[in-house]
Amino acid sequence: MNQALHEAIERKYIAPTERKAGDFVGVEFEFPLINLRKQPVDLPEVQKIVKKFAETFHFTDQKIDDNGNLYSLTNPETGDNLSFDCSYNTLELSFGKEGNIHVLNERFRKFFQALQEEFFEIHHTLTGMGIHPYYKYNTYEPIANDRYRMLYHHLHAYRNYGNKFYHGIPTFSMLATASQVQLDVQKEDILQTLHTFNRLEPFKAVLFANSFYDGLPELIISRDYLWRYSSQGYNPHNLGMYETDFHNLEEYFDYVASQSIYCVQKGEKYLHFKPIPLYEYINLDSVTGSYFDAGTWKTSTFKPEIQDIAHHRSFKFADLTYRGTIEFRSACEQPVKDVFSHAVFHAGLSRKLDELTDLLEHDSVLYGHGYNASELRELLTYRKIPEFVDKKKLSAFLIQILEISEVGLHERGYQEENFLRPLFERAENLTNPALEFLNGLERGDSLESWISRYSAF
């Protein structure tokens, strides 16, 4: 590998972990924003609500798109942020790092309730679903800034990327939502954490499935499919699971170098181009990218530089970040009443990493039947559990995993164990929000009743 690239990867991803890790948690929640009149989001009215929110909660650090709409606002004291993700169809609440998840929950409830009361007045709502339930009524325009225009254009460029299979839904980023958590990690724990949580992914699919999409009716986690067969999946190393175990950090550096970069910022231009592996990119004499200018897309040629690694981003289910954290991003958004279950699950397990590793290494419920971790994850995104899986043993094994997390949470000392309660119920009954939703529809429940149910505390 190019020595300069090696050093850049180490500076960006490893150096931040060479300090004593805290016990902090960072969370991000993406919620579909729904116009209950079955029309596109009423953006002018939504903007009034967001501006009132900013005044009420002192979110003074604000960003405005090219059309004058407020799309990101932050409280500079706490680091809490309200933003719109990709389009104005999805509202995201993210929070500055805290040790105690109860503190985050208190702030979340306060923010969410204030927004919901205002949204109800204009016949809108937020809900905890991993696919926008009214996606058919939405408009699909990117937020009018350089970053989201670039992403929109990149996702539509799949037609230019060869004969690979793509699903042809480049607007998926405007209808799929996730729950994400970041936890501090120390250098010596990076590889074990990535390995162990990679093996955990099939079990997480059972617990957190919540992205049914009627265009893929056999799946209860459509997000995996939508990401994998999009432009973001052009290089499979950029997303999903790891197909290899890393024996040392040098192997991890090589893996990062094999991931692709697809955008950079040069001056005021935000350019995107066909994804190129980093180890190839850095040795090229020139790259031609597309950028938006005065209403049209133009091209510009530039020479790659080592500092361009700042724009490298991958979307692995468990991903080392430049903040000295590992971000877990495979979970669909959860019903609002259970929204912190994903965060506490990981916080507890990361505290008991050795115990979790040992349990998963000796599993025979899912493993040992001829499938690797990523194959098992894919199988368990379907509504029907595979025939080779003993359901009673699977339920018992999920409970063992949750008990390990519970011990870890007890050791954290914040009395966060109650947030796990809904997961124990799911493990005992081998259910999840997607299955409960589908079963309800089959009983004759209305879609609206489930939108309401998954928006309630």
- What value does the average pLDDT take? 96
CATH architecture of the largest domain: 2-Layer Sandwich
- Percent of residues in helices: 25-40%
As residue ranges, the low-confidence spans are none
Account of the protein in words:
This protein is α+β, with helices and mostly antiparallel strands and 457 residues long. The protein has two domains: 64 residues, no CATH class; 364 residues, Creatine Kinase, Chain A, domain 2 (2-Layer Sandwich), CATH 3.30.590.20. It has 15 helices and 15 strands. The strands form four sheets. Strands 1, 2, 3, 4, 5, 6, 7, 14 and 15 form a nine-stranded antiparallel beta sheet that branches. Helix 1 packs across helix 7, helix 5 crosses helix 10 and helix 12 runs antiparallel to helix 13. The longest helix has 22 residues. It is globular.
Short structural description:
This protein has helices at residues 3-14, 43-57, 101-121, 146-156, 190-208, 222-228, 249-258, 278-281, 341-351, 353-361, 373-379, 391-412, 421-429, 433-442, 447-453, and strands at 25-35, 61-64, 70-74, 81-84, 90-94, 124-126, 178-184, 239-240, 260-266, 269-277, 287-293, 296-302, 315-316, 318-320, 325-332. With 457 residues, it is an alpha+beta fold.
What is the fold's blueprint, element by element?
Elements: H1 3-14, E1 25-35, H2 43-57, E2 61-64, E3 70-74, E4 81-84, E5 90-94, H3 101-121, E6 124-126, H4 146-156, E7 178-184, H5 190-208, H6 222-228, E8 239-240, H7 249-258, E9 260-266, E10 269-277, H8 278-281, E11 287-293, E12 296-302, E13 315-316, E14 318-320, E15 325-332, H9 341-351, H10 353-361, H11 373-379, H12 391-412, H13 421-429, H14 433-442, H15 447-453
Parallel strand pairs: 8-13
Antiparallel strand pairs: 1-5, 1-6, 1-7, 2-3, 3-4, 4-5, 7-15, 9-10, 11-12, 14-15
Helix pairs in contact: 1-7, 2-3, 5-10, 5-11, 9-12, 12-13
